[in-house]
């Protein structure tokens, strides 16, 4: 007798091995074109801005190897960053540590995403956003995609651009605020960073609303 099974998890052979362009093409068939992907980098660090990028890929010239930026080496991200900048419409925006402290990291991240989308040279008809939230104030339809940087190449391209741009910003910050190691850890809460804060105190780039900087 044949047996049937039921599961709320997709079978291994149904799981994609990386992001693709299927969501974008489905939107195009519905008349929603162009499609932009947006993502941010830097929600978790103790210092520095949160940086968002918005990317509209050329469907006839999508760079090979796009993936969630966290799954790529720094050298691979830099190579893909260059290819994305050559072949796609790209816009970047950021929210400073002061703005993060004022309105909270979630709102600051979403606002940076909204501004990145607004800065695109072409106006998208649909925005695919990594995560659970659609940035408020978009001038078009938005769709939140959980783990979107592993599903949509437009979102993964945005994640790469945001990560590379933020890393470069933090490397430059090391020149202005030496002693913290920003060029190495990009503001994340490593032991080296925590020790530096204890030794020389926080600087203007630190998010004073984050623990352990926040005064209870």
UniProtKB/TrEMBL annotation:
Gene3D superfamilies: Ribonuclease H-like superfamily/Ribonuclease H
Sequence ranges assigned to domain RNase H type-2 in this UniProt record: 33-216
Keyword vocabulary terms for this entry: Cytoplasm, Endonuclease, Hydrolase, Manganese, Metal-binding, Nuclease
Residues holding a divalent metal cation: 39-40, 130
Record note on cofactor: Manganese or magnesium. Binds 1 divalent metal ion per monomer in the absence of substrate. May bind a second metal ion after substrate binding.
Required cofactor(s): Mg(2+); Mn(2+)
EC category name: hydrolase
Superkingdom of the source species: Bacteria
EC number(s) given by UniProt: 3.1.26.4
GO molecular function terms listed in the Swiss-Prot or TrEMBL record: RNA-DNA hybrid ribonuclease activity
InterPro entries assigned: RNase_HII, RNase_HII/HIII, RNase_HII/HIII_dom, RNaseH-like_sf, RNaseH_sf
Annotated catalysed reactions: Endonucleolytic cleavage to 5'-phosphomonoester
Locations listed in the record: Cytoplasm
Purpose: Endonuclease that specifically degrades the RNA of RNA-DNA hybrids.
PANTHER family assigned: RIBONUCLEASE H2 SUBUNIT A (PTHR10954), RIBONUCLEASE HII (PTHR10954:SF18)
Family per similarity comment: Belongs to the RNase HII family.
Name by which UniProt lists this protein: Ribonuclease HII
Lineage of the organism: Bacteria, Pseudomonadati, Pseudomonadota, Alphaproteobacteria, Hyphomicrobiales
Gene this chain is encoded by: rnhB
């Amino acid at each position: 007798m044949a047996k049937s099974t039921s599961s709320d998890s997709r079978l291994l052979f149904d799981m994609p091995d990386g992001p693709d362009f299927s969501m974008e093409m489905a939107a195009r068939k519905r008349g929603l074109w162009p499609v932009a992907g947006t993502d941010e980098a830097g929600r978790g660090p103790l210092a520095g801005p949160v940086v968002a990028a918005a990317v509209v890929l050329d469907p006839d010239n999508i760079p090979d190897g796009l993936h969630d930026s966290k799954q790529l080496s720094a050298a691979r991200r830099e190579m893909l960053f260059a290819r994305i900048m050559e072949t796609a419409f790209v816009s970047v925006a950021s929210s400073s540590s002061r703005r993060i402290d004022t309105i909270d990291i979630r709102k600051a991240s979403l606002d940076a995403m909204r501004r990145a989308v607004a800065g695109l040279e072409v106006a998208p008809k649909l925005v695919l956003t990594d995560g659970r939230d659609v940035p408020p104030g978009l001038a078009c339809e938005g769709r939140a995609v959980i783990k979107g940087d592993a599903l949509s190449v437009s979102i993964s391209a945005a994640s790469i651009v945001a990560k590379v741009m933020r890393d470069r910003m933090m490397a430059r910050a090391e020149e202005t605020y030496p002693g913290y190691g920003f060029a190495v850890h990009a503001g994340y809460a490593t032991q080296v960073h925590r020790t530096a804060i204890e030794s020389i105190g926080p600087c203007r780039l630190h998010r004073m609303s984050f623990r352990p900087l926040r005064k209870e």
